[in-house]
């Protein structure tokens, strides 16, 4: 069992609405992101996480997102293994997201 904290889609939506200092990272592929992303999300495909890690601040709070929550869990675990302390996984991924989308 992973130590990564799960965040429910409605909880994340409320944090975004409050302009919380939380960074959303969408690890899906380009064609998936074209179907819509969570507002404020930054697109970093899963395969590029290792090479873009130096662009992320370990002091920030992150929510990792993918289609169903599996790839984003892998990304979350990778960040935690590299010294990031405040990382969450979006429970159920975009399949469970009912909030606004940006294209």
UniProtKB/TrEMBL annotation:
Cross-referenced InterPro entries: GlpE_sulfurtransferase, Rhodanese-like_dom, Rhodanese-like_dom_sf
PROSITE patterns: RHODANESE_3
One family name in Pfam for this protein: Rhodanese
Classification via CDD domains: RHOD
Every Rhodanese domain range: 18-103
Segments crossing the lipid bilayer: none
Name listed for the protein in its UniProt record: Rhodanese-like domain-containing protein
Lineage: Bacteria, Bacillati, Bacillota, Bacilli, Bacillales
């Amino acid at each position: 069992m992973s130590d990564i904290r799960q965040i429910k889609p409605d909880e994340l939506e409320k944090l975004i609405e409050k302009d919380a200092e939380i960074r959303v990272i969408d690890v899906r592929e380009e064609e998936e992101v074209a179907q819509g992303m969570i507002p404020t999300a930054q697109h970093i495909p899963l395969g590029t996480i290792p090479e873009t890690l130096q662009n992320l601040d370990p002091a920030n709070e992150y929510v990792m997102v993918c289609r169903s929550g599996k790839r984003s869990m892998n990304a979350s675990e990778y960040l935690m293994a590299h010294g990031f302390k405040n990382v969450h996984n979006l429970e159920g991924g975009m399949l469970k997201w009912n909030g606004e989308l940006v294209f």
